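During the second half of the funding period, the structural biology subgroup turned its attention to how the target accommodates small molecules. The most pressing case was nicotinamide-adenine-dinucleotide, which had performed well in the primary screen but for which no bound structure existed. We therefore specified the complex as follows and requested a full 3D prediction, including the ligand pose.
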Amino acid sequence: MLNYNRSRNQSRAGMDYLESRRKQHFLGKILMAAFLTAVCIFILKQSPRFSETSAFSQHELGVSHVLVTGGAGYIGSHASLRLLKDSYRVTIVDNLSRGNIGAVKVLQKLFPEPGRLQFIFADLGDTKAVDRIFSQNAFDAVMHFAAVAYVGESTLEPLRYYHNITANTLVILEAMDKHSVKTLIYSSTCATYGEPKKMPITEGTPQVPINPYGKAKKMAEDIILDFTKTTDMAVMILRYFNVIGSDPEGRLGEAPRPELREQGRISGACFDAARGIISGLKVRGTDYPTHDGTCIRDYIDVTDLVDAHVKALDKAQPKKVGIYNVGTGKGRSVKEFVEACKKATGIDIKVDYLERRPGDYAEVFSDPSKIHRELNWSAKHADLEESLKVAWRWQKLHRNGYGSS
Ligand SMILES: NC(=O)c1ccc[n+]([C@@H]2O[C@H](COP(=O)([O-])OP(=O)(O)OC[C@H]3O[C@@H](n4cnc5c(N)ncnc54)[C@H](O)[C@@H]3O)[C@@H](O)[C@H]2O)c1
């Protein structure tokens, strides 16, 4: 009996010992995990990415944080450069479907300091991703550039245009509403006017778009206008005319995807012809009722255009919507454009004059007096040849766009 009790006591003592060893071991593990977590947090806090994230996620007195959608594209990258130069904090969101990561890299090199610029790869059609971006970042304003933007393509793929332009603008507005971001600068277009009979086009000219691109933008404008009636948002809608040129200091340029060449704009086609990528220029229509028979357009330099955005941002007021044409107010014929391009490049580009292309209207140019009056903006780079010279300089140094700078 005695022996039995003793051995029972002994085995209990052994178990107690084992139990206490196990507890000590467990405690050690917890302490080690806590130590490792603390080390990880310390290391993360030291890394520039961590400080960048926190800077972007908090409002800071005196610093305005602008979300630039489509900031890897032609106009969005130039706008981001200007905003960064003006000390704004910039977040670019782009799905790189049309833009260039090379343009973002140029900006990142120019503004490497933490809290200045971040790039987020995302598709604006992804509602959850957009919501996450808005919940993780403290935006003060949105410049919404992201869009597919070719008239011809829009007639072939209308649903893509309504989805990308109209539906995605709705996604942005819903996110702005949910996360209380109160200022929107919207990229619209003279294509929303369609074929007005009377020139120049004022903001009061009836909007009767004639292709899915113009219609999708007009619908997006209408959604924005309806929404602003119920909120205290500050909205500026800018209707651009034909955008040309590039950064005068040669840091950025226009580099559409080679597969979009066919859809492309006249400046791109001129440069491609000057470089021999295409055999020459095809000018469609020489019997329009204009002074030389070719179509007339209003060409606005991208440097002036982004200046209009900054002025619009500066003057945006709660509960108010400003709608402005952004053009030079001067129409130039296609023939004049081609002559300016020949002079700017120094190359005698071959030109073929062909029949009219269906759907092209004879004459489009803006009346920019409202934006001059209300935002004190006017085009400063209205010399076509000079704008093309600047753009050509970048094109010559970047034969494959941002791919081989
Ligand atoms: N270029 C012009 O002459 C002109 C004239 C009038 C209006 N606009 C408007 O200006 C804006 C910018 O045009 P651009 O010439 O710089 O075009 P762009 O193609 O160079 O840039 C558009 C950018 O938006 C991005 N994007 C497109 N869909 C997206 C999506 N679903 N999610 C995220 N990113 C997306 C593209 O990748 C690209 O970087 C567009 O809204 C366009 O309609 C342009």
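Two results from this model are relevant to the next phase. The radius of gyration is 29 Å. The pocket of nicotinamide-adenine-dinucleotide is lined by residues 70, 72-76, 94-99, 123-125, 145-149, 164, 168, 187, 189, 240, 242-243 (CB under 6 Å).
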